[in-house]
């Protein structure tokens, strides 16, 4: 038997899914290619992109050589070569933010009402019904309890904030087993993809 652990994938699993499923298919990529290349400032032709990368690397290395040539070994805070010709890269110093900028930033922030993330997601579901995309792994005909949307939202927030299901259970009062079961049976890779590509994407357009 040949192969290794990373060659085995579990259908429907989020943790053990095939990484290739996260990529666009050639049919999906074709209509998006021009816009993406324009966005990142790269040519669509692979050979041209490689040449552009080489030119950018050469320019960056030339600039680095000039910087190192000007720096002295005792230039504290500068990128330089030390006495042993080893590259020294000091940590970046924090930039001072003018007091006027801080006040200006705080002014619009203070005008916005505080909205808990759960309330925002509930309002979004009212407008888009994106939570309906989270269907049971056993099929769409499975009965949905009255608390299911609440449980799905709790799982989504726990994952999005890296809070974890255990701490979310403590914070919201929903049993850990309930959140774990909801994640396994409803918050799967395909349901997340459907919610993002369907109602949520339409709401952003």
SSE layout and pairing:
Blueprint: H1 26-29, H2 33-40, H3 46-70, E1 80-81, E2 87-88, H4 99-111, H5 117-128, H6 148-160, H7 165-172, H8 176-185, H9 189-204
Antiparallel strand pairs: 1-2
Helix pairs in contact: 6-7, 6-8
Describe it for me?
The chain is an all-alpha fold. Among the domains are: 42-88, no CATH class; 117-204, no CATH class. The protein has helices at 26-29, 33-40, 46-70, 99-111, 117-128, 148-160, 165-172, 176-185, 189-204, and strands spanning 80-81, 87-88. A two-stranded antiparallel sheet has the order 1-2. A hairpin with a 5-residue loop joins strand 1 and strand 2. The longest helix is centred in the N-terminal third of the chain and has 25 residues, at 46-70. It is extended and about 70 Å long.
Short structural summary:
The protein has 205 residues and is mainly α. It has nine helices and two strands, in the order H-H-H-E-E-H-H-H-H-H-H. Helix 6 crosses helix 7 and helix 6 crosses helix 8.
